[in-house]
Design a protein that fits this description.
The chain is α+β, with helices and mostly antiparallel strands and 190 residues long. Helices cover 31% and strands 29% of the residues. The protein has a 5-stranded antiparallel β-sheet. Strands 10-1-2-11 form a 4-stranded antiparallel β-sheet, covered by helices on one side. The protein has a two-stranded antiparallel sheet with strand order 3-4.
Length: 190
């Protein structure tokens, strides 16, 4: 699993992630895996993916092969991007689109957080896009990360400090994520 967080504060947006990879009970820490980074840089966007490791490979491939179809500048454009990519994900990457028996729509099997100069966003596996005012977390230990960020939001000065604290709390108490963390910050335009 993974823990990814996004935070917006004082004109900046930050994204942070753990670096632990796991395969059942096998834990692969950053010093053992060259491609341990869970945040992808694309133009002025940072995309943090949680879930299966294949999701990272799929998103990196989509960026390489379909960059002209990707627009993360606002909630509506992110939704349209993910809607267009869904058929590509199904046909080119052979994704099983079912998650639950009574699901209303097919899943793209990609869950991610986005930090960019326009703000912080979540994209769930059904392509629902949410924009957040202060912070959010995705993945294993997300409730721990959200709790830590809530407790520290007014006490810490920077978005990055809050994000790193959220990752630290999740990694301390959840066995699905582990340090070290990586983080990136962008200046907000609005």
């Amino acid at each position: 699993m993974s823990i990814i967080v996004v935070v917006k504060k004082r004109g900046q947006a930050a994204i942070a992630a753990d670096t632990l990879q796991s395969d059942d009970s096998l834990l692969l820490r950053a010093q053992h895996v060259v491609n341990h980074e869970k945040i992808i840089s694309f133009r002025d966007n940072y995309l943090g993916l949680a879930g299966w490791a294949a999701a990272q490979d799929i998103m990196e491939s989509l960026i390489r092969n379909h960059a002209e179809q990707l627009d993360f500048t606002d909630r509506g454009k992110i939704f349209e991007t993910m809607r267009r990519l869904h058929s590509i994900i199904k046909t080119d990457y052979h994704i099983d689109t079912s998650e639950e028996k009574d699901q209303p729509v097919e899943s793209s099997q990609l869950a991610m957080l986005v930090a960019n100069p326009q703000g912080i966003f979540e994209i769930d596996s059904y392509r629902t896009v949410s924009e957040y005012e202060r912070f959010f977390a995705l993945g294993s230990g997300r409730t721990l990360a959200i709790g830590a960020m809530q407790a520290l939001y007014d006490r810490l000065d920077s978005a990055e400090e809050i994000a790193i604290a959220g990752i630290g709390a999740a990694c301390e108490f959840d066995d699905g994520c582990g340090l070290p963390a990586t983080s990136y910050t962008v200046e907000l335009r609005r």
